[in-house]
Amino acid sequence: MTAEQGRWAGRNPDKDLIRHEIWYGLERDGVAVGPAWSMIPNFVGADVAAWHLAQTPAWKAARTVKTNPDAPQIPIRIRALYEGKLVFAPVPYLTQDFPYLRLDPERLQKNGVSFELAATSQGFMEHGERIGFEDVAPLDFCVVGSVAVTREGGRTGKGAGFADLETAIFRELGIVSATTPIATTVHSTQLVGDDRVPMQPHDSPLDFVATELELIATGNTAARPMGVDWDRLQPDQFETIPFLRELKSRMLARRNQ
Protein backbone atom coordinates (compact mmCIF):
# COMPACT_ATOMS: atom_id res chain seq x y z
CA MET A 1 0.00 0.00 0.00
CA THR A 2 1.55 3.34 -1.01
CA ALA A 3 1.67 6.33 1.32
CA GLU A 4 -0.67 8.29 -0.92
CA GLN A 5 -3.32 5.58 -0.69
CA GLY A 6 -3.27 5.78 3.08
CA ARG A 7 -2.11 3.28 5.67
CA TRP A 8 -5.58 1.81 6.14
CA ALA A 9 -6.82 2.01 2.55
CA GLY A 10 -8.99 -0.78 1.18
CA ARG A 11 -11.69 -1.06 3.81
CA ASN A 12 -14.03 1.43 2.14
CA PRO A 13 -13.11 2.53 -1.41
CA ASP A 14 -15.53 5.48 -1.40
CA LYS A 15 -14.02 6.89 1.80
CA ASP A 16 -10.53 6.15 0.49
CA LEU A 17 -11.29 8.43 -2.46
CA ILE A 18 -12.53 11.23 -0.20
CA ARG A 19 -9.45 11.00 2.02
CA HIS A 20 -7.20 11.07 -1.04
CA GLU A 21 -8.91 14.25 -2.27
CA ILE A 22 -8.67 15.97 1.11
CA TRP A 23 -5.03 15.05 1.79
CA TYR A 24 -4.00 16.07 -1.73
CA GLY A 25 -5.91 19.35 -1.56
CA LEU A 26 -4.53 20.35 1.83
CA GLU A 27 -0.94 19.87 0.65
CA ARG A 28 -1.53 21.36 -2.80
CA ASP A 29 -3.05 24.53 -1.38
CA GLY A 30 -0.49 24.98 1.38
CA VAL A 31 -3.13 24.49 4.08
CA ALA A 32 -1.54 21.44 5.71
CA VAL A 33 0.93 22.01 8.52
CA GLY A 34 3.38 19.16 8.08
CA PRO A 35 2.52 16.03 6.08
CA ALA A 36 -1.17 15.26 5.60
CA TRP A 37 -1.18 11.79 4.04
CA SER A 38 -2.53 8.93 6.14
CA MET A 39 -3.00 11.28 9.12
CA ILE A 40 -5.54 13.40 10.89
CA PRO A 41 -4.04 16.42 9.17
CA ASN A 42 -2.88 19.52 10.96
CA PHE A 43 -3.93 22.74 9.26
CA VAL A 44 -3.51 26.49 9.16
CA GLY A 45 -6.11 28.00 11.48
CA ALA A 46 -6.40 25.08 13.90
CA ASP A 47 -6.09 27.53 16.81
CA VAL A 48 -8.98 29.61 15.48
CA ALA A 49 -11.11 26.50 14.99
CA ALA A 50 -10.38 25.59 18.62
CA TRP A 51 -11.49 29.07 19.68
CA HIS A 52 -14.79 28.66 17.82
CA LEU A 53 -15.42 25.32 19.51
CA ALA A 54 -14.59 26.76 22.93
CA GLN A 55 -17.39 29.33 22.60
CA THR A 56 -20.11 26.67 22.83
CA PRO A 57 -22.00 26.44 26.13
CA ALA A 58 -21.39 22.68 26.14
CA TRP A 59 -17.62 23.20 26.08
CA LYS A 60 -17.72 25.94 28.70
CA ALA A 61 -19.73 23.73 31.06
CA ALA A 62 -17.52 20.66 30.58
CA ARG A 63 -15.14 19.63 33.35
CA THR A 64 -13.91 16.38 31.75
CA VAL A 65 -12.86 16.35 28.09
CA LYS A 66 -11.63 13.63 25.77
CA THR A 67 -9.59 14.54 22.69
CA ASN A 68 -7.88 12.55 19.99
CA PRO A 69 -4.07 12.65 20.20
CA ASP A 70 -3.40 14.36 16.87
CA ALA A 71 -1.59 17.64 16.17
CA PRO A 72 -4.58 19.73 14.96
CA GLN A 73 -6.20 19.26 18.37
CA ILE A 74 -3.20 20.56 20.35
CA PRO A 75 -4.92 23.99 20.69
CA ILE A 76 -7.99 22.26 22.12
CA ARG A 77 -5.94 20.47 24.76
CA ILE A 78 -4.08 23.67 25.69
CA ARG A 79 -7.38 25.53 26.12
CA ALA A 80 -8.85 22.73 28.19
CA LEU A 81 -5.88 22.64 30.56
CA TYR A 82 -5.80 26.42 31.01
CA GLU A 83 -9.52 26.30 31.77
CA GLY A 84 -8.93 23.73 34.50
CA LYS A 85 -10.53 20.81 32.68
CA LEU A 86 -9.40 17.22 33.18
CA VAL A 87 -8.19 15.97 29.80
CA PHE A 88 -8.16 12.37 28.58
CA ALA A 89 -6.35 11.33 25.41
CA PRO A 90 -5.72 7.91 23.87
CA VAL A 91 -2.29 6.55 23.15
CA PRO A 92 -1.56 7.29 19.46
CA TYR A 93 -2.74 4.31 17.39
CA LEU A 94 -3.53 2.47 20.67
CA THR A 95 -0.27 0.55 20.31
CA GLN A 96 0.77 0.40 23.99
CA ASP A 97 -0.43 -2.07 26.60
CA PHE A 98 -2.37 0.81 28.21
CA PRO A 99 -4.90 2.72 26.12
CA TYR A 100 -5.34 6.12 27.75
CA LEU A 101 -3.62 9.00 29.50
CA ARG A 102 -5.06 11.49 31.97
CA LEU A 103 -3.86 15.10 32.11
CA ASP A 104 -4.70 16.84 35.36
CA PRO A 105 -3.82 20.56 35.14
CA GLU A 106 -3.21 20.81 38.89
CA ARG A 107 -0.82 17.85 38.83
CA LEU A 108 1.00 19.23 35.79
CA GLN A 109 1.47 22.62 37.43
CA LYS A 110 2.72 20.99 40.63
CA ASN A 111 5.29 19.04 38.60
CA GLY A 112 6.39 22.11 36.65
CA VAL A 113 5.12 20.79 33.30
CA SER A 114 3.86 23.45 30.91
CA PHE A 115 0.43 22.98 29.40
CA GLU A 116 1.90 23.63 25.96
CA LEU A 117 4.23 20.65 26.37
CA ALA A 118 1.62 18.40 27.97
CA ALA A 119 -0.77 19.08 25.09
CA THR A 120 1.53 17.48 22.50
CA SER A 121 1.47 13.75 21.89
CA GLN A 122 5.06 13.43 23.10
CA GLY A 123 4.24 15.52 26.16
CA PHE A 124 1.17 13.64 27.31
CA MET A 125 2.87 10.30 26.68
CA GLU A 126 5.67 11.42 29.02
CA HIS A 127 3.71 13.37 31.62
CA GLY A 128 0.19 11.91 31.50
CA GLU A 129 -1.07 9.31 33.96
CA ARG A 130 -1.44 5.89 32.32
CA ILE A 131 -4.93 4.47 32.73
CA GLY A 132 -7.30 1.88 31.27
CA PHE A 133 -10.60 2.53 29.52
CA GLU A 134 -12.52 1.74 32.71
CA ASP A 135 -10.51 4.41 34.58
CA VAL A 136 -11.63 7.27 32.34
CA ALA A 137 -13.99 9.57 34.22
CA PRO A 138 -17.50 10.16 32.84
CA LEU A 139 -16.93 12.54 29.95
CA ASP A 140 -18.69 15.87 29.47
CA PHE A 141 -17.31 16.57 25.97
CA CYS A 142 -15.57 14.51 23.28
CA VAL A 143 -13.36 15.76 20.45
CA VAL A 144 -12.48 13.38 17.62
CA GLY A 145 -10.10 13.77 14.71
CA SER A 146 -11.41 13.92 11.16
CA VAL A 147 -10.17 13.88 7.59
CA ALA A 148 -13.52 14.78 6.00
CA VAL A 149 -16.79 15.90 7.56
CA THR A 150 -20.26 17.00 6.52
CA ARG A 151 -22.52 19.74 7.81
CA GLU A 152 -24.96 17.04 8.90
CA GLY A 153 -22.45 15.49 11.27
CA GLY A 154 -20.98 12.69 9.16
CA ARG A 155 -17.24 12.14 9.41
CA THR A 156 -14.44 9.91 8.33
CA GLY A 157 -11.07 9.67 10.01
CA LYS A 158 -7.90 8.27 8.56
CA GLY A 159 -9.51 4.86 8.10
CA ALA A 160 -8.32 2.89 11.12
CA GLY A 161 -11.61 3.06 13.02
CA PHE A 162 -10.02 4.18 16.30
CA ALA A 163 -12.49 6.99 17.08
CA ASP A 164 -15.59 4.87 16.47
CA LEU A 165 -14.11 2.05 18.54
CA GLU A 166 -13.28 4.34 21.48
CA THR A 167 -16.70 5.97 21.43
CA ALA A 168 -18.46 2.60 21.36
CA ILE A 169 -16.34 1.33 24.26
CA PHE A 170 -17.11 4.45 26.31
CA ARG A 171 -20.81 4.17 25.52
CA GLU A 172 -20.92 0.54 26.66
CA LEU A 173 -19.04 1.41 29.85
CA GLY A 174 -21.37 4.33 30.59
CA ILE A 175 -18.54 6.89 30.29
CA VAL A 176 -20.43 8.71 27.54
CA SER A 177 -24.17 8.86 27.02
CA ALA A 178 -26.51 9.37 24.09
CA THR A 179 -26.30 13.12 24.69
CA THR A 180 -22.57 13.62 25.31
CA PRO A 181 -21.46 16.23 22.74
CA ILE A 182 -19.07 14.95 20.07
CA ALA A 183 -17.13 17.53 18.08
CA THR A 184 -14.24 17.96 15.67
CA THR A 185 -12.01 20.74 14.39
CA VAL A 186 -11.07 20.80 10.71
CA HIS A 187 -10.13 23.22 7.96
CA SER A 188 -13.06 24.52 5.94
CA THR A 189 -11.76 22.67 2.86
CA GLN A 190 -12.32 19.40 4.71
CA LEU A 191 -16.09 19.91 4.50
CA VAL A 192 -17.70 17.69 1.86
CA GLY A 193 -21.22 17.12 0.60
CA ASP A 194 -23.60 15.32 2.94
CA ASP A 195 -24.05 12.45 0.47
CA ARG A 196 -20.31 11.71 0.40
CA VAL A 197 -20.03 10.49 4.00
CA PRO A 198 -23.24 8.61 4.76
CA MET A 199 -23.73 7.54 8.37
CA GLN A 200 -23.41 3.82 9.11
CA PRO A 201 -24.88 1.93 12.10
CA HIS A 202 -21.57 1.91 13.98
CA ASP A 203 -20.96 5.65 13.46
CA SER A 204 -21.52 8.31 16.10
CA PRO A 205 -22.63 11.59 14.49
CA LEU A 206 -20.91 14.88 15.25
CA ASP A 207 -22.77 17.56 17.19
CA PHE A 208 -20.30 20.33 16.35
CA VAL A 209 -17.85 20.99 13.52
CA ALA A 210 -15.49 23.92 14.11
CA THR A 211 -13.40 25.36 11.28
CA GLU A 212 -11.20 28.43 10.99
CA LEU A 213 -14.22 30.22 9.52
CA GLU A 214 -17.24 29.08 11.54
CA LEU A 215 -18.86 26.83 14.09
CA ILE A 216 -21.42 24.39 12.70
CA ALA A 217 -24.04 22.92 15.02
CA THR A 218 -25.14 19.89 13.01
CA GLY A 219 -28.46 19.24 14.74
CA ASN A 220 -27.94 15.53 14.04
CA THR A 221 -30.23 13.41 16.23
CA ALA A 222 -29.37 10.01 14.73
CA ALA A 223 -29.12 7.17 17.23
CA ARG A 224 -25.65 6.35 18.47
CA PRO A 225 -24.29 2.83 18.92
CA MET A 226 -25.04 1.39 22.36
CA GLY A 227 -21.72 -0.46 22.47
CA VAL A 228 -19.06 -2.27 20.47
CA ASP A 229 -20.06 -4.46 17.54
CA TRP A 230 -17.15 -6.84 17.91
CA ASP A 231 -18.04 -8.66 14.69
CA ARG A 232 -17.28 -5.51 12.69
CA LEU A 233 -13.71 -5.12 13.95
CA GLN A 234 -10.95 -5.94 11.50
CA PRO A 235 -8.42 -8.74 12.20
CA ASP A 236 -5.55 -6.25 11.98
CA GLN A 237 -7.11 -4.21 14.79
CA PHE A 238 -6.75 -7.18 17.13
CA GLU A 239 -3.19 -7.67 15.87
CA THR A 240 -2.03 -4.07 16.33
CA ILE A 241 -3.94 -3.06 19.50
CA PRO A 242 -2.30 -5.09 22.31
CA PHE A 243 -5.07 -4.92 24.89
CA LEU A 244 -8.06 -5.37 22.57
CA ARG A 245 -8.62 -9.11 23.01
CA GLU A 246 -8.51 -8.83 26.79
CA LEU A 247 -10.84 -5.82 26.70
CA LYS A 248 -13.27 -7.77 24.50
CA SER A 249 -13.34 -10.61 27.02
CA ARG A 250 -14.00 -8.25 29.92
CA MET A 251 -16.73 -6.35 28.11
CA LEU A 252 -18.52 -9.47 26.87
CA ALA A 253 -18.41 -10.77 30.44
CA ARG A 254 -20.07 -7.55 31.59
CA ARG A 255 -22.87 -8.04 29.06
CA ASN A 256 -23.56 -11.52 30.40
CA GLN A 257 -23.77 -10.48 34.03
CATH class: Alpha Beta
Q: What's the name of the CATH homologous superfamily? A: NagB/RpiA/CoA transferase-like
Q: Percent helix among the residues?
A: 25-40%
Number of domains: 1
Beta fraction? 5-15%
The largest sheet, given as strand count, sense and whether it forms a barrel, is:
8 strands, mixed
Distance between the termini: 43 Å
Given the helix and strand composition, which structural class is it? alpha/beta
Question: Which CATH-level-2 architecture?
Answer: 3-Layer(aba) Sandwich
- Determine Rg (CA atoms, Å): 17 Å
Q: Report mean pLDDT, rounded to a whole number.
A: 87
Count of beta strands: 10
At CATH level 3, the topology is Rossmann fold
Q: How many DSSP H or I helices? A: 10
Q: Please list the strands of the largest sheet in the order they lie side by side.
A: 4-3-2-1-5-8-9-10
What series of H and E elements makes up the topology? HHHEHEEHHHEEEEHEEEHH
Shape: globular
- Ranges where pLDDT stays below 50 over 5 or more residues in a row are none
Task: Tell me what the structure shows.
- The strands form two sheets. This protein has an eight-stranded mixed sheet.
- The relative contact order is 0.16.
- Helices cover 33% and strands 13% of the residues.
- The N and C termini lie far apart (43 Å).
- Strand 1, helix 4 and strand 2 form a beta-alpha-beta unit.
- By secondary structure, the protein is of the alpha/beta class.
- It has a single domain, classed as Rossmann fold (3-Layer(aba) Sandwich), CATH 3.40.50.10420.
- The model has no long low-confidence stretch (mean pLDDT 87).
- It is built from ten helices and ten strands.
- Helix 2 packs across helix 4.
